[in-house]
Design brief:
306 residues, alpha/beta, Rossmann fold, 2 domains, 6-stranded mixed sheet, 12 strands
Amino acid sequence: MTRIVSLLPSSTEIICALGCGDRLVGRSHECDYPPGVADLPACTAPKFDPDGTSYQVDQRVKAILQEAASVYRVDADLLDELAPDWLVTQSQCEVCAVSLADVEEAAGQLVRSQPAILSLQPNALADVWGDIKRVAVALEVTERGRALVAQLRQRLDQIAARTCAIGHRPRIACIEWFEPLMAAGNWIPELVEIAGGQPLFATAGTHSPWLAWDALVEAQPDGIVLMPCGFDMPRSGRELPALTRHPLWSRLPAVQQGQVFLTDGNQFFNRPGPRLVESAEILAEILHPQQFRGTHEHQGWKRWES
């Protein structure tokens, strides 16, 4: 049986959704879904302390990137021991997972099984669907890949069909990092539109942009959805003072009207895999609660209360 090491959480989810989870022999340190994958040996580790405030994490990451191409290290000895046939990684973001260059070096020079490398680079929803199909082809389950993509797209189409009939489309600011402030880009603007909103600040298919507080206030968003990269809801809640203590926070209409929402960015919005559909469902519940039941409330999102 083909032996696979997945070096990012979204590819692990894709592999399992394709019915190939039993082929996984290793994972990244962040892979934790579906249940059971955390029992696999972790082949990567961060070069920085991931604990601390969003500002502290940002400063540590920037300091490392001044000297290295990646903020994560690969355990080449463990990879050699696991003897994979495939290594699945990414080249979309040097902060999201181990760098492609580090993986290529380990695979080419230090891993005796000489695994093939499949590098994913999702920037928009179409890229995510394409990556699922590429993984399916590599693992020789092509038809499963096509069926999975068709199913995921159908679920999104059903959400979009329901929101098209809603006249009000609130203007939404999706925040991917607290300090410094960053808007959520890539596939997030598409999800907002599918869920019946108007995305602010970012363009579909482009990287998440830094955001000035003055620009946020000037835009006067109807709603703010917080989805910090790598943060679950409890950690986002602990980090909220980075926003609420800012003198411009109280001037935002979304704050004044109670339209600020915490989400589990780590499990949903930040992972370009099958659960982006659940991410769209979360947004639809937030933006149009009368039309969509809150089935993900408290698990994937909750309203911020000052």
